[in-house]
Amino acid sequence: MIGLVAVTAAGRGAAARVATALRLRGEQVAVYDGPAAGALLRAWGECDGIVAFLATGATVRLVAGMLDDKARDPGVVCVDEAGRHAIALVGGHQGGANALALLVADVLGAAPVVTTASDAVVLPGLDMLGWPVEGDQAGVARALLDGEPVHLLADATWPLPPLGLHAGQVGHHPAAVAVLHVTDREIALPAGHAVLRPPSLVLGVGASRGADPATIAVLVAKTLRENGLSQASVAEVVSIDLKADEPGIVALAARFAVPYRTFPAAALATHEVPTPSEVVRAETGTASVAEASVRQAGAELVVTKRKNAVATLAVGQRAPVGRLAVVGIGPGARDLMVPRAVAELRRASVVVGLDQYVEQVRDLLRPGTHVLETGLGSEEERARSAVQQAQAGRAVAIIGSGDAGVYAMASPTFEALEQALAAGAPRIDVVGVPGVTAALAASASLGAALGNDHAYVSLSDLHTPWPAIEQRLRAVAEGDLVACLYNPRSRRRTDQLPKALAILAEHRPPSVPVGVVRNASRPDESVTLTTLADLDPDDVDMYSVVIVGCSQSRVVDGRLVTPRGYRWLQ
Asked: Beta strand pairing status for 482-486 and 544-548?
């Protein structure tokens, strides 16, 4: 819950605006009024985050005595009386104050003030990666911030964001002043060493009916300790369907705050295991519950069956799964790039894209991001590179202009993934991030060109034969759809646009409005409104989008408008 503390009229007004925005995001909100000291004290005990519409000095004095542990304290954001600044005061990372300050600033039109060191230099804090971190976190973070050599030791390649490590600092580095481990093994951590715990361990559990949860937990703790494995890396608990509601196993998953998944006996029976049991087979239909569940979950069995009086346990280890984000970066204007695209670019340790698109987003990338860029005509090469990097376990983003799924990189990327999987390559997690297309940006600049049914058609015959394009154009023309023409003309392709306009002219009058938008949304954008009869193809190039209206489209105050419903014209 987010608490809003406001004691003045201006503060209460700003708090009301912030409360509305937070509730629209699904947050629970409580507003605290009255004397500041009492209001802050109540909010401190009840909320996960606090926005105090108070002077910074006053807020500091009031919360100073309440501070206990940054892992438990709520994040505090301070907003001045004029609403000009939203300051992340306490709990920037773990308390969520940095993110809350950005949200509050966006709502109020204020300037966010974030002073945590890693955010100031655009490096992710170790405690913000979503994994448990142990050891000398401050020492390693300081070395990263200072640009000192950091020795990275990882059991495997995990899809982590760039951590500011420079080339030559990964692996053995005798001059390293700090060491960051990524492992699920228990290791010694002297000063200058920290460890990130990946979500790699799967617990396969079988239990007798009504088994004591504490006894199951003791078996788990003992087994992990004896095998040098960290409880912080437990990612999932698995078992047989018959135990889906077994309280002791359900409680175990809740203890680790991880998912609990069960499988049918028939599926478990297909796995060969080191320690099968005919007794178990007679009771459940499978010779193994713990070990077979681990294998059914897709993990490698690293600890064979252990048991006590009430339960059996096996431990599996998951291989890292790479992550590939297919990101649409919008039509060109930075404020038309969706926030999720920005977040994915900053999360990626590898970014793949066309050189001119990479330049548009280079300033958003974190230090240490590996960039793979190629020129025009290398779409398949970029797609293969992105898939290969993700299959190596990395966090990858492949970018395309507009929406990556519209005449951009999403399709070739999935084709490359299909080929790789068919060849036996490992699976990866793929995330799609939508973007504002050039057509949408052009339509907005023209007015409301796409207000009713419309179709996108690319006039490029580099990948699609012209007869197929012509067939689609005739269908669009006969259906009286607004036609949005991509790739209309280039230096070598000069005939396609006149042919397309002629086909459309067979089914709509010459007075139909046509809009041409060049470099939509960019500083040098140009907008031309003409008619089907008067459009000069020589005025169009590859940076243009051409929108040909349907028979119902018209010009309203100099804007191209296609009514939502024809009945509105009556």
From this structure: antiparallel
